[in-house]
Amino acid sequence: MSLKGAYAVYRGYRVPHLQLIEHRRWWFIFSGILIALSLIGIIVNGFHFSIDFVGGAELNYAPGTTLTADQIQTVLDKYSLPAEIQLVSGGEQVSIRTDALTTDRQPLIDELASQAKISPEEVNVQDIGPTWGQEISRKAIRGLIFVLLFIAIYIAWRFEWSMAAGAMVALVHDVLITAGIYALVGREVTPETVIAILTILGFSLYDTVVIYDKIKENTESAALTARLGYVGVVDMSLNQTVMRSVNTSLVVLLPILSLLLFGGQTLKDFAFAMFVGVAIGAYSSIFIAAPVLTIIHERQVNRGKVAQPTRTVRGPAAQPAIAAADDAAATGAAAAMASRPRPKPKPRNKKGQPKKRKRR
Asked: To pair with 73 at 20 to 30 A between CA atoms, which of 45, 207, 225, 311?
């Protein structure tokens, strides 16, 4: 197999040869910039939590006339109330989620009822405490820690501990950047956002495990590892799986993009977190998880914990050794041919042609 040029030949097939591991420093710099921006967004902007986490009020009523979200917002602006307005079933039902209302809430209810041409008693007001959202977050974090620990143990058992470490680094990379982008754009953090982050972790791990499985399959070939070295085998494995990862990610991103463009407000928050997370997860599986694996392996080799495979050299410095090996092989082949017993010559006639056997 030759890794020269734009393509490499593997088992008779031409696969694209992208020098991904060789340029790993550029990927790390790019990821470092994204992480720095994410930390700035988290520290400066912070997270905009929904009322499920900080508490608030929810108002529901069926208007007697056609209303728009802008018309309802004008009423809420008089009381300086930031709110999330949803028109359900084409405006047949109005749902307003806003900050906690004071005890003097009746003027707001009366004005909303007057605008909707209904009685104030038809406006249903429900106070929401922060306990529900905090309980969901607590359980989600607890489940996340348990799942990550279990996955790390499984990857270390199924592959090797260095691959488990690379997968965990990629996961932290994905969560940090997704959360940072969410803070930078100022989107509201809802329980759906927490669910989306947990979902993208599973997708990122799936892509990483597929790549690691191909790396493990190729490194089990002693001849291939001796010829290309461990880094070369990892690079070749990435080239064999990169198009699969890209195609899988595109298939997942397209329906998420449709939800982001045409879904409701709740679906848009969920779809935004999913879109960013899936894209970052596909990137980290290729450009973070595999390069981190090679770095850990190189450090193991330097410490003598892993044997460095002998790599076949084909450069100019190796030409005398290669020529001597070829001469020795040729001499050995000639000696073997000379030692073989020679077959008896077939009887021939006077013209030098083989005699024909007489049929009985």
From this structure: 45
pLDDT at 336: 53
**Six-digit token string for 281:** 């997860």
* Lowest model confidence (mean pLDDT) among 14-28, 67-81, 212-226: 14-28
Q: CA angle, corner 231, sides to 228 and 232, nearest 5?
A: 35
**Residue 223 and residue 16: Cα distance in Å, rounded?**
21
Q: What is the pLDDT of residues 266-311, one digit of tens each?
A: 678 788 888 888 899 889 988 999 899 999 888 888 877 555 554 4
Q: What are phi and psi of 354, to 5 degrees?
A: -60, 135
Q: Which two tokens stand for residue 210?
A: 């597929």
Q: Which residue is it, tokens 């982001």?
A: 260
Q: What phi and psi, each to the nearest 5 degrees, are found at residue 126? A: -130, 120
Q: Which CATH number fits domain 56-128: 3.30.470.30, 3.30.70.980, 3.90.470.10, 3.30.70.260?
A: 3.30.70.260
Give the sign of the dihedral formed by CA 117, CA 121, CA 124, CA 129: positive
